[in-house]
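User: Predict the full complex structure for these chains.
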Amino acid sequence: MLSHAEASEKFIADAERTDWHDETLWFVREKRDKVSKVLPEWEALREHASQIKDHTLANLGSYLQAFEEKAQANGIKVHWAADAAEHNAIVHQIIADQGSKILVKSKSMLTEECHLNDYLANKGIEVVDTDLGERIVQFRNEAPSHIVLPAIHLKKEDVGETFHQHLGTPKGNKDPQFLTEAARQHLRGHFLASEVAITGVNFAIAETGEFVVCTNEGNADMGAHLAKVHIACMGIEKIIPKREDLAVFLRLLARSATGQLITTYSSHFHKPREGQEMHIVLLDNGRTRQLADPKYKNSLKCIRCAACFNTCPVYRRSGGHSYHQPVAGPIGSILAPNIDKKANADLPFASTLCGSCSNVCPVKINIHEQLWFWRQDLMAAGLAPVSKTIGMKLMAFTLAHPAIYRIGGVFIRRFSGLLNTSLNPWYKQREMPEAPKESFQEWYKKR
Amino acid sequence: MSAREEILGKIYAQSEINHPGDFQGASEDFDFKAALEVVGARVLTAEALEIEFPGRRRYEKILDGLSLAEVEVLEIDGEFGVAENGAIWLTEEALPHRVAPFICQHLVINVSKIVPNMHAAYAELNKPNSSFGLFLAGPSKTADIEQSLVIGAHGARSLTVVIRA
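Assistant: Here is the predicted structure of the two-chain assembly.
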């Protein structure tokens, strides 16, 4: 697996595409600014949402039990999964009981986290992703590169070619309207035929035992309302206490995500349809570990709007795939090390720590601070890249020994050209500054 | 030990943090029609609707959602509209089937009540819960191909709203 820096290097090799990616995401960020600034209460809403989440996390056990009790009373079957393997086994069992070999699934980053598609494929069950962006990347055997805009790394020419290969659209046709219509016809067939539908969950309400799913395309609803069996998969952190709390979160979610006033569909699933089976799978997969650590607990407040992706100067110029995780960007970089420290040790370093992520976060997660906390933890655990470890040790030694510091200074000033080589990773994309003729000390002594 | 006990056992009691209560100080000065335009819906008068969609239909309650697969223009009643975002609250009780507003090609919704914002909306719908309900704002849409907005992804290709007194 390539590290973030290595994968980014490949991504930026295509300068034109990198610029397009950067500008397109910044445009989404600007849309977010426009719709949020017209609400005088925007900052108060963020604060309120943050406080609701703080309160919920402090009482998560009791809210989960309240939710379970209400949902069961509503006729929904509730399952608990400690990790991804258990989650996948539960979902598979439900599908096997129904006897289905193919099913439709709307966007769910949690099922990406669990690698559910691959797991089910190995059991002979085909998953048809129904979100347009997700279907595109599924055809291409790729992972989504953005949690809200899964195919944002692709140009319409790429999508045209993919659809030509998989849906038989005319070669060279790259018109978004035409391609979307082709996908509509293709997926409508699957919606009408599927007996099982899997969806994600945006919010689950402890007070009522219902859950809310938000989409713009209507794919979650097309699947869930026609299927005999609806399986909703959620992380345990998606709980909120009351229905009224939804007002706050639904006002923030779409405005932060895409600059929309609200998603086209915000569906409240309270009870199964007559004759329908409805399941909810509650997944931990490291979330309780995150909850127990005061430094990282706040990351569980995330409502997956991806505003931090769109604003991040590193994400915009490195692409989602460079993060090698289902949830990329700044938030992914603080979630992923909790699941696997070693495999994701590069991610907290994929940031400038500029703090823009924290500034746009609708639930006020201190993302850039947590990135910094992770760097310290990873260095202490000996998991930082060797180049960084050696460099830091050398620097610490030099700064602790004035004589060596002085000699080093003289050396660098005389041979500053040595820094302008490819051996110096900092030189790659930067001009090194001119070394001054004399040091401050030398100048001071002459006075 | 079951996963349930394992998960609940790992959630340590945290220090007391109170729920902040209901949100106060929300703006109320919104224009429902303007918001409908933003979300891509069209507003027609009752007279214009007759000219535009003479063939629209209402449907009785049915159990089989698939039987609605060929519906061209469906007319339904919304419970209320939300001025801040153009969303309309629909409940299963007032629909032929849950899938109805999604599976039809074109959707017409009558609205006779408007609330200013989402806080007022939840205060309104907090009566006995529907078994299924949704906020619907405009026609189905996607921007998944190069961020180009395309109307009519999987749900209704158009939404027409008639505001009746």
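Chain A has a mean pLDDT of 95.
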